[in-house]
Specification:
mainly alpha; Serine Threonine Protein Phosphatase 5, Tetratricopeptide repeat; two-stranded antiparallel sheet; 16 helices
Length: 470
């Protein structure tokens, strides 16, 4: 496992705290010389945009993109979790209840509406930062980029936000200018995956030039995920009605498989590329961890856990695990670890993101083998994964598709992938109402109400649902 901690807040020493107290005392003394509404003051924390043209700030700029990315993913994990069977409504907030029941297409939903500007911010900031660092990297004077690994890291973050949008949204607005409105991508939505793949390719190329195996394997794993996601996205757009699609839909994408093989060559068994949230980057419209372990508005789904009498938290220890491994019939240890990481009050509210992993690469290759009817390859891949998970080898029962679905369900838990798996495997979430859009159609999150309200080029009227997701 490899975890990246991104902190953008200023660290303060005891001496600086002392200076702060002195400053407060001085301000109190001087207050009499100011009017109550004095505005002619200097903000010592103000940073002008020109400061971002200094290559000395490149690392901080990249960290800022990473922190923004974590905020975005944190929220998507919650809304995808609630819209699927991973999380369920357990509190009083109605919009969690509506997502839980399968109403994913409402632009007015408090949570999907609230998270949208954070993903939009991350996407714009990533593109802006790439432009800045590439300019530094090409400079021939004293303004060169000082650590080129920062650029490989930034390319990876930029690719990740584009693929996160592609995996979970119906449509999106991509604008290059902060003051000029842009139209939704619409029929060109797949460009988000193309942009993601292009960024990952830059990261891989640069990491290889630098001999940086860490960012090469991270970007390779994420590019495999993006190519896999693009193949799935193409299946459901513009087709919406799962009834017209033969389930299950299995992905066998040559590019995704090649990247998975290349990534595995650089990953030790069980490797995970993880991003950790903390007090500085855990914000957003909401924090999924806070909603789960503090407010108790949502909790792990009823097919996964056994809960307390109030139905707000899992029971302690293994007693709280309901889902069993389909071979051993024992409580699944991978899920148990995932629940410990996300959904217990002892976990805390700062969730860790798994962006790419050794187990996901094996799942991609196992699925491709199953799609190609290559039983030997499927068995080898799925049993390598199961060995790392500490569960018995699969010998043919239950069916190969069932063992694949279970592998994805527990190994990708709370990683923003479950909603699309419901649709492509023809599996309804336990809480979906039969008249909900998720029950009837393969729909994802819409362009938000706030974006529509402020952008006349976005779908109008602002409250309207996408025509394909009525």
């Amino acid at each position: 496992m490899h975890t990246h901690m991104l902190r953008v807040a200023r660290r303060t020493s005891r001496a600086s705290h002392t200076l702060a107290r002195v400053a407060v005392a001085s301000a109190t003394v001087l207050l009499g010389g100011c009017t109550l509404f004095e505005t002619d003051v200097t903000n010592p924390n103000a940073v002008v945009e020109e400061a971002l043209s200094d290559p000395a700030g490149a690392t901080t700029l990249v960290n800022g993109v990473g922190a923004s990315l974590i905020r975005s993913h944190n929220q998507v994990a919650g809304t995808v979790g609630a819209s699927s069977d991973e999380l369920t409504w357990s509190g009083s907030r109605e919009y969690w209840k509506l997502l839980d029941e399968g109403d994913v297409a409402d632009p007015l939903n408090e949570y999907s509406n609230g998270q949208y500007p954070y993903l939009s911010e991350t996407r714009w900031l990533a593109d802006y930062a790439v432009g800045q660092l590439e300019k530094f990297d090409k400079a021939s004077t004293g303004s060169q980029l000082r650590n080129r690994a920062d650029l490989a890291r930034l390319y990876t973050y930029a690719g990740f936000i584009y693929s996160l949008v592609g995996e979970n949204y119906e449509d999106f607005v991509i604008a290059s200018d902060r003051q000029t409105n842009a139209a939704p991508l619409g029929a060109n939505f797949s460009v988000v995956f193309d942009s993601s793949i292009a960024y990952y390719t830059k990261a891989i190329t640069l990491a290889r030039t630098l001999g940086n195996a860490e960012w090469e394997r991270n970007a390779l794993g994420l590019r495999a995920r993006a190519r896999f996601g693009k193949a799935l996205s193409g299946r459901f757009r513009p087709a919406r009605n799962p009834g017209t699609l033969a389930a299950p839909y299995l992905v066998n994408d040559a590019g995704a498989s090649a990247d998975a093989v290349a990534a595995l060559a650089l990953m030790e068994s069980g490797y995970r590329f993880r991003l950790s949230s903390n007090a500085q980057n855990n914000g957003g419209y909401f924090s999924t961890g806070f909603e789960v372990v503090q407010r108790l508005e949502i909790r792990a789904g009823s097919e996964y856990v056994n809960v307390n009498p109030a139905a707000t938290i899992p029971l302690d220890g293994l007693a709280g695990i309901k889902l069993v491994d389909p071979v051993s019939a024992a409580k699944d240890p991978v899920l148990a670890t995932a629940i410990n990481d996300c959904c217990r009050q002892s976990t805390g509210q700062f969730l860790t993101i798994t962006a790419a992993s050794w187990v996901e690469m094996q799942l991609i290759l196992a699925e491709a083998a199953l799609a190609a009817s290559n039983t030997a390859e499927f068995t080898a891949r799925i049993n390598q994964l199961r060995a790392v998970n500490g569960v018995p080898a699969w010998t043919g029962a239950p069916a190969a598709l069932d063992i694949l679905k279970h592998g994805r369900r527990v190994n990708l838990f709370m990683q923003g992938r479950r909603l699309v798996d419901h649709h492509r495997f023809g599996v309804k979430a336990d809480r979906w109402l039969t008249n909900s859009v998720a029950y009837r159609k393969a729909c994802f999150f819409p362009i938000s109400y706030d974006e529509r309200l402020q952008n006349p080029l976005a779908p109008q009227p602002a409250v309207a649902r996408d025509a394909a997701c009525q």
